[in-house]
TrEMBL record:
Belongs to the Dps family. PANTHER family: DNA PROTECTION DURING STARVATION PROTEIN, GENERAL STRESS PROTEIN 20U. One of its GO terms (molecular function) is ferric iron binding. This is Ferritin.
Length: 156
C-alpha cells in the first residue's frame, strides 16, 4: 500500500537512511556499554557497573524506538551485525580497557551519536518531518546528559 504521510518518497528514504546510521551508532554504543558493564574492574566498580547497566538498558529501548520510526517511514531497519558495522561511526572495543578508558570511550560514543543525530535535522525540517525531529531531539538530550555525567567522572 502506498504511504501518504506528507513526506515524499525520496525524503522518507533519505531520512530512514540517516536514522539507520543513528540506529547503528546507538546499537554499537549499546554493545560497548554492555561490554563495559560486564568487564569493569577497580575502585569504582560498583558505581560504574550500576551506571553502565542503566545506560545500556536505556539504549536498548532507544534502538527499538529508532527502528520503529524507520519502519513508519516505509523502510526496513538495518538489523544485523554486518549492517551495523558498515553504518556505525563508533569503534568497536575488542579488549578490556581500564575503567577510565571505558568512561572516555563511552563519552566519545555518546558524542558520536549526538553528531549523527544532529546531521539529520536539516532534512527533517525541510521535509516537515516533525516526528523524526522530535525523536532526534529526545535522543540528543539523553546522550548529552549521559556524556556530561560520564565526563564529570574524569574531571579532577
Amino acid at each position: 500500500m502506498q504511504i501518504d504521510i506528507g513526506i515524499n518518497e525520496t525524503n522518507r528514504t533519505a531520512i530512514a537512511d540517516g536514522l539507520g546510521r543513528v540506529l547503528a551508532d546507538s546499537y554499537a554504543l549499546y554493545l560497548k556499554t554492555h561490554n563495559f558493564h560486564w568487564n569493569v574492574t577497580g575502585p569504582m566498580f560498583q558505581t560504574l557497573h550500576t551506571m553502565f547497566e542503566e545506560q545500556y538498558t536505556e539504549l536498548a529501548m532507544a534502538v527499538d524506538e529508532i527502528a520503529e520510526r524507520i519502519r513508519s517511514l516505509g523502510a526496513f531497519a538495518p538489523a544485523s551485525f554486518s549492517a551495523f558495522s558498515e553504518l556505525t561511526s563508533i569503534k568497536e572495543e575488542r579488549g578490556v580497557p581500564a575503567a577510565k578508558d571505558m568512561i572516555a570511550q563511552l563519552v566519545e560514543g555518546h558524542e558520536t551519536v549526538i553528531k549523527t543525530a544532529r546531521s539529520l535535522y536539516a532534512l527533517c525540517n525541510s521535509s516537515d518531518d516533525d516526528a523524526t525531529a522530535d525523536l532526534l531531539t529526545a535522543r540528543i538530550q539523553v546522550h548529552e546528559k549521559t556524556a556530561w555525567m560520564l565526563r564529570s567522572l574524569l574531571e579532577g
